[in-house]
Amino acid sequence: MFFERPKSGERAILVHMEMAAEADQESPRELEELALSAGADPIEMLTGSRNKPSPKYFIGSGKLDELKQLVHKHEATLVIFNHAMSPAQERNVETELECRVLDRTGLILDIFAKRARTHEGKLQVELAQLEHMSTRLVRGWTHLDREKGGIGLRGPGEKQLETDRRLLRERVKTIHKRLQKVRTQREQGRKARARAEVPTLALVGYTNAGKSSIFNKITTADVYAADQLFATLDPTLRKIELADVGSAILIDTVGFIRHLPHKLVESFRATLQETVEATLLLHVIDCYDEERAQNITEVHEVLMEIGAEDVPVLQIYNKMDLLEGRSARIDYDSEGKPQRVWLSAVSGEGIDLMFKAITELLSEDLIVEVIKVAPQYGQLRSLLFAKGAVVSESVDEDGSMLLDVRVQRKDLLQMLTRVGMPTEPYRIVEVY
Fold this sequence. Notes:
By secondary structure, the chain is α/β, with parallel strands linked by helices. The protein is built from 14 helices and 14 strands. Helix 3 (87-97) links the parallel strand 3 (78-81) and strand 4 (100-102).
């Protein structure tokens, strides 16, 4: 965007190195999926091992020669490293290979730029790109690292590189201001939902776990869903109805990934804030993925990084249809609370159990009682029926109404206050 590089193409060579000094390694399979999601055509993967990265090329001189031969053999125009590289390392490898080089962060940013659809999403991606690019400007502008000259421009002047850095800083400031406006608008929406006491359910999880498929199954929102990493980038909110709970807001969020760059987390803070302030997190897990345990750990680490580690979580084990001998069910913890739901977003099996588990977790204050209401307080009866809270009704000997109700405590308290009846005790209402 700001610098000149060799023309990029789709034929790509992937590079994955096992680093002895790193306990938590990246996944070669995930690198291939990322490349495919970006639109590249991975031709071959170069693998190897080192104790630590080479300061100059990241890989050793021998591997660099191998990589150069692969690039020439396949006429590749793109090399993707499954690691975070320094600007100098990228520049040095590009010079040697004479083709474009991307590290893991640059690849993820490229996918984000491709998938952003809303104004907010595009701003967040641009901010992340600019901050990532700020240390890499010199690689494309070295031929302009000189003072401006010419008629009307002679004198002390300003180097071209300094001009670009100044323009970049100004653009970053502008984006920060616009995103602050977005944060303010979202905060107003969250406060409005809080005043109305509407619970929010945020779908979170590792990228490509099936969050958007579940979202579409529940809401018929037709959110873009594909078997790709980061198919969803922008958050989508929909209103749903839950038995015994009432209205709730379901939020589809961007997927997490192993070693999500810190700058990306910062840039997407406005989006991720929906997760932090949710009533319940629905952690969607690809139960067919061999790296399921590592992915769960990565999601937990991102939740801790954004400050959402204390939000209650219900695990949703998706893609159950790919496992033999598995059927939809709810797993409960030692306290009898729903902990895990097994389902398939494709077939729809288990979706009803997910609703049941959500309702159980959100209905801890559910009142299931027979309340006795005197005739003069018929307005309470009307409110309860309007809420759909009355299971059955009968009349007592003295003419009072006996209502068998299922209603949230907060809703009943609001109704009692509205009709001028005492709110305590609220379990059994007897008015004579």
